[in-house]
């Protein structure tokens, strides 16, 4: 049981750490487009590991109800893995359509 | 009675033209059955009640849904290739998860790096993909967005991808191995 608990705690803490990194990334990155990288993806990863931790924690007693709950949690992960890239793409597309130019390191270079 | 009514009445009384003979081929029931199975599994997981009443409710509603929209989830012209595609996709998912994890570590290193502004080099890159089917392009575009460091901005009708990459290392990996793996799923 000790190893099991440790695994759950490790997954949960690493999930929190991914969320934290996402928040820091949003604050530190220079422009709209590059901020979407930590916002859209580190959050997905944080959600994945923390949901895995919850699913593992729920099935520690092996009953039908617990397994159904774990499956529902896995469904959340599956849906987020489909919707998160779609939402990120929608935001990027809105930025491009509005004519926002991406920040580039060399400002003399014409950004596409 | 106004003048405007006359042509309307005329057109209503016109004899309808003979319909051209239906040339639509008979559609295979396989996508409907698969949609029904997927709906039913979701129903079982979400409901969690296995008595006759709730099961029959599930069967009826899943039958209605798969009848109405059975050709949406498995939109393909050749249902015989579906099982192989899904099996190969299932083997692709663990590799994708591993890539997501690796790339997450990379972006996390960037986020916490003290000299982050020197390391990053945001850029828009454009390349043409050799993928032809819509489904393959969709899977590839979403895979690009899921791996951190790269976001698909736009996919043109002819397979031209516009991707925003956060640094040179992320940009170098495109199109690369991921495209080859997606192409292998759909046998292109």
Portion of residues within helices of chain B? 55-70%
- Any low-confidence stretches of chain B, pLDDT <50, length ≥5? 1-12
Instruction: Tell me the overall shape of chain A.
Output: elongated
User: How much helix is in the residues of chain A?
Assistant: over 70%
Strand-helix topology:
The complex is a heterodimer of chains A (112) and B (188).
Chain A: H1 2-28, H2 32-58, H3 64-97
Helix pairs in contact in A: 1-2, 2-3
Chain B: H1 5-13, H2 30-47, H3 52-73, H4 82-112, H5 116-119, E1 123-128, H6 134-146, E2 150-155, E3 160-165, H7 168-172, H8 176-185
Helix pairs in contact in B: 2-3, 4-8, 6-8
Provide keyphrases for this structure.
A: 112 residues, mainly alpha, 79% helix, elongated, B: 188 residues, 2 domains, three-stranded antiparallel sheet, 60% helix, disordered N terminus
Could you characterize what this model shows?
Chain A is an all-alpha fold and 112 residues long. Chain A has one domain (2-95). Chain A has helices at 2-28, 32-58, 64-97. Chain B is mainly α. Chain B has 2 domains: 21-75, no CATH class; 80-185, no CATH class. Chain B has a 3-stranded antiparallel sheet with strand order 1-3-2. In chain B, strand 2 and strand 3 (160-165) form a beta hairpin. In chain B, helix 4 (82-112) packs antiparallel against helix 8 (176-185) and helix 6 runs antiparallel to helix 8. Mean pLDDT of chain B is 77; it is low at 1-12. Chains A and B meet through helix 1, helix 2 and helix 3 of A and helix 2, helix 4, strand 1, helix 6 and strand 2 of B.
Tell me briefly what this model is.
Chain A is mainly alpha-helical. Chain A contains three helices and no strands. Chain A is elongated, with a radius of gyration of 19 Å.
């Amino acid at each position: 049981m000790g190893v099991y608990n440790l695994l759950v705690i490790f997954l949960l803490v690493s999930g929190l750490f991914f969320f934290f990194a996402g928040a820091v990334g949003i604050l530190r990155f220079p422009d709209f487009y590059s901020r979407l990288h930590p916002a859209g993806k580190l959050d997905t990863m944080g959600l994945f590991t923390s949901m895995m931790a919850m699913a593992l924690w729920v099935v520690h007693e092996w009953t039908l109800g617990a397994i159904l709950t774990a499956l529902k949690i896995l469904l959340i992960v599956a849906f987020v893995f489909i919707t998160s890239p779609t939402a990120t793409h929608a935001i990027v597309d809105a930025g491009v359509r509005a004519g926002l130019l991406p920040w580039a390191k060399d400002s003399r270079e014409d950004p596409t | 009675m106004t003048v405007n009514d006359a042509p309307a009445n005329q057109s209503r009384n016109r004899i309808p033209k003979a319909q051209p003979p239906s040339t639509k081929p008979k559609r295979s029931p396989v996508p409907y059955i698969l949609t029904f199975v997927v709906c039913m599994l979701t129903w079982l997981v979400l409901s969690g009640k296995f008595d006759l009443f709730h099961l029959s409710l599930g069967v009826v509603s899943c039958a209605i849904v798969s009848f109405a929209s059975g050709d949406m989830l498995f939109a393909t012209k050749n249902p015989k290739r579906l099982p192989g595609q899904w099996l190969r996709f299932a083997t692709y998912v663990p590799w994708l998860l591993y890539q997501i994890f690796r790339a997450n570590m990379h972006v996390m290193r960037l986020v916490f790096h003290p000299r982050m502004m020197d390391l990053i080099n945001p850029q828009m890159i454009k390349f043409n993909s050799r993928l032809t089917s819509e489904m393959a392009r969709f899977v590839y575009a979403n895979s690009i967005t899921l791996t951190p460091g790269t976001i698909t901005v736009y996919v043109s009708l002819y397979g031209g991808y516009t991707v925003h990459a956060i640094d040179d290392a992320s940009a170098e990996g495109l199109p690369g191995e991921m495209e080859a793996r997606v192409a292998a799923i759909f046998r292109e």
